Amino acid sequence: MVMQTGLIFHPYMRPGRTARQTFDWGVQSSIACDKAGFDTMMISEHASQIWENIPNPELIIAAAALQTENISFAPMAHILPHQHPTKLAVMVGWLSQILEGRFFMGIGAGAYPQASYMHGIKDAEPKMLNDMVRESLSIMEKIWAREPFFFEGKYWNAGFPQEDAPETEEDEQHMLADFAPWNGAFPEIAVTGFSSNSPSMKLAGERNFKPVSIYSGIDALKRHWEIYSEANIAAGFTPDRARHAVSHTIFCADTDAEAKREVMEGPIGYCFERYLIPIWKRFGMMDGFAKDHGIDPNDADLEFLVDKVFVVGSPDTVVDKLNVLFEQCGGWGTLQVESHDYYDNPEPWFHSLNLLAKEVAPRVKLPEGSKAPATADA
Ligand SMILES: Cc1cc2nc3c(=O)[nH]c(=O)nc-3n(C[C@H](O)[C@H](O)[C@H](O)COP(=O)(O)O)c2cc1C
Q1: Which CATH number covers residue 130?
Q2: Which residue range is the domain that position 151 belongs to?
Q3: Mutate which of 192, 202, 214, 279 to test ligand 1's pocket (most atoms within 8 Å of Cβ)?
Q4: Of 173, 252, 275, 353, which one has the fewest beta carbons inside 10 Å?
Q5: For the segment 110-148, what is each residue's pLDDT rounded down to a tens digit?
Q6: Which are the contacts of 198, defined by CB distance < 8 A and separation ≥ 6?
Q7: Does ligand 1 have an atom closer than 6 angstroms to the CB of 57?
Q8: How confident is the model at residue 366 (pLDDT cuts 50, 70, 90)?
């Protein structure tokens, strides 16, 4: 079994891009990934960030579904505290039917306090947000099960009406529409993990969901796997590293020098200098990388990240760097490439995606005992 490849589309568009440009770039990226042989594409949901300017990932997924053949899609993530669970469950069920098996669902608690505030959550703190995630999920599962209930929760009320079997042809015209997910099964659910004591990884383990981490250093990643697998084993499951997807900044070109120059001088460097390096420092996300390499987080700059943290280089170098990372932290099943704004000149980016899918992924040794293909079935 080979490592799977995924694209995560936040999408880090430079401020000033129009909604139409962002949308176009999403659909173009899905077509390029599908052609290159990527297994999955995940699309973020943000109501507040200029650089992360997609409020409704499902719109890009629906458009991309019609222009792609094999790749699976997931919102990554629908932010459960921000919407009514029934509305979301019905939309997800319908979308998974439209995708006819090429859909899985990412869920998250929400990263940005401004977005929580916009949705009426004034003092967003992780405990409450995670509690909301759990309540929302339990309602969505009841809606998908299509059995009668009425639930009055701490955050939302919801129900599914009792429906009698039709007796006449006329009765049949008035039955409830079926918005259960594709084939009547629950979609595979993926959960985003971020902090080192991640409550999300615990939920993923308990419910046997697919764990998805952002790479933020060796210790944090090891800890994510520990939290996930402890909860997974305690709930009676067998953890499988092949299901773990890890998002990272990855760029591949024909030579090491070309790859480094492109990342330093192109859209990736532009985004890191202006947006991600400041935000990583603010949220403590630089700490893990700094610790791994024995420097002060305040001294971390773009070149440090390109040389020591990102996975940048020719296919041979990228394979070597991934094998070293896998040895250090145990490995994972899906290499989830963080997308960037190559809207003006997609060629180097699409070339990188091609090299990753065709020349890198097949040569990376998966962790011992990997079983399931990481792709989710709806
Ligand atoms: C791969 C990945 C994708 C994420 N996508 C989003 C997103 O689209 N919107 C958002 O508000 N937060 C997003 N987050 C953050 C989550 O909503 C949430 O804050 C975080 O995963 C909580 O992790 P923790 O339980 O480890 O603290 C993402 C996190 C990860 C790891």
Answers
A1: 3.20.20.30
A2: 4-268+280-363
A3: 192
A4: 173
A5: 989 999 999 999 988 999 999 999 999 999 999 999 999
A6: 213, 223, 224, 227
A7: no
A8: confident
